[in-house]
């Protein structure tokens, strides 16, 4: 019933997590 709300929350958390983790992955790849 509230599956779309859970999906939106998961998408937002993963999006912010990717933005927060991006510089670390870029530094590791150098």
The whole-angstrom Rg is: 13 Å
Number of helices: 1
Strand content: under 5%
> What spatial form do the alpha-carbon principal axes imply?
rod-shaped
Percent of residues in helices comes to over 70%
The major β-sheet equals: none
Mean pLDDT: 88
Model description:
The protein is mainly α. The protein has one domain. It contains 1 helix and no strands. The chain is rod-shaped.
Helix-strand layout with pairing:
Layout (H helix, E strand, L loop, with lengths): L2 H27 L1
In short:
By secondary structure, this protein is mostly helical. The protein is built from one helix and no strands. It has one domain (1-30).
Features:
30 residues; mainly alpha
């Amino acid at each position: 019933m509230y599956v779309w709300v859970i999906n939106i929350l998961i998408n937002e958390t993963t999006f912010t997590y990717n933005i927060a983790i991006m510089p670390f992955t870029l530094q590791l790849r150098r």
